[in-house]
Design goal:
globular, alpha/beta, about 30% helix, six-stranded mixed beta sheet, about 280 residues, Rossmann fold
């Protein structure tokens, strides 16, 4: 582990490779308090096109607060929030969405009894006709959903089936494809693999890679470094509302990331406590 990356405010837009272009979004020394409780303090990170920024931490680390700042639910009490290198202040998640920042929460905002295609366009219905003859264009909606899922490599048996019949990984993939279709430039994923088994988690990671390869900036919130490390380009580790550092992939190994997140000394002490006594001793 070579140490946290420096957050550079002077990057130049349009210069090409990762680490050079102006970030799609960035927070600098962001802080948020609720009464006397410090939920987030002096946290900085950035998200670039075609990269995955992983935000890791246990419960209470500040991940949810950071998500809500990035997605426009909260306004930070201190620090800066920049979009495309310019200061931004969102009054609601709708404002963030209008700038191409889409958040997929754990509950996915889907209705289980509705079909895949109906959930895909929920709240943003395709229509045809004018005035009193205006109707939801069902044929076009079904076709668009099939095409969008296929273009992401997502194999859904029947777009007419209820979303509730899909696996957890498939539901996550539909939510990701929906955000991409509606113009997301930054995709914030709130613990998308937390309730999934190994195989389904792998499915979701593949679709995150698809979004990244399409040029989106992805924020992957997770408490699982085993899921984060294969897909991540940079890693922000939070603990009790503060940053333990932000690392590029070449600066930290999977084991070092796990140890940092778990608290290396505490983990070693726990292993010692749980170890069996030596029978010969």
């Amino acid at each position: 582990m070579t140490g946290p990356e420096e957050i550079r405010p002077d990057a130049v837009p349009g210069t090409g490779g990762p680490g050079t272009a102006v970030p799609l979004l960035e927070v600098r020394r962001a802080g948020k308090t609720f009464g006397g409780v410090i939920a987030l303090r002096d946290v900085s990170t950035r998200v670039r096109a075609g990269e995955v920024t992983c935000v890791l931490g246990d419960n209470g680390a500040g991940k949810s607060t950071l998500i809500k700042i990035l997605s426009g639910v909260y306004v930070p009490d201190s620090g800066e929030y920049l979009v495309d290198g310019a200061p931004a202040a969102f009054g609601s998640p709708r404002d963030a969405l209008d700038r191409g920042i889409a958040t997929v929460y754990q509950d996915l905002a889907m209705i289980p009894l509705m079909s895949v295609w109906r959930n895909f366009f929920l709240g943003s219905e395709l229509s045809r006709g004018w005035g009193p003859l205006r109707r939801f264009d069902v044929v076009r909606a079904r076709r668009v959903v099939r095409e969008e899922l296929r273009s992401m490599g997502i194999d859904i048996r029947d777009v007419d089936q209820p979303v509730g019949t899909l696996s957890g990984g498939e539901r996550q993939s539909v939510a990701i494809a929906r955000a991409v279709y509606f113009g997301a430039r930054v995709l914030i994923l709130d613990e998308p693999t937390s309730a999934l088994g190994v195989k389904q988690a792998g499915v979701v990671l593949r679709y995150i890679a698809q979004a990244r390869d399409r040029g989106l900036g992805v924020v992957f919130i997770t408490h699982n470094p085993q899921h984060a490390y294969p897909i991540g380009d940079r890693f922000l580790v939070l603990n009790r509302g503060t940053s333990l550092g932000e690392y590029g992939k070449g600066d930290i190994t999977r084991d070092e990331l796990t140890s940092l997140m778990a608290g290396g000394a505490e983990l070693e002490q726990l292993a010692h406590e749980l170890g069996r006594p030596d029978p010969a001793g």
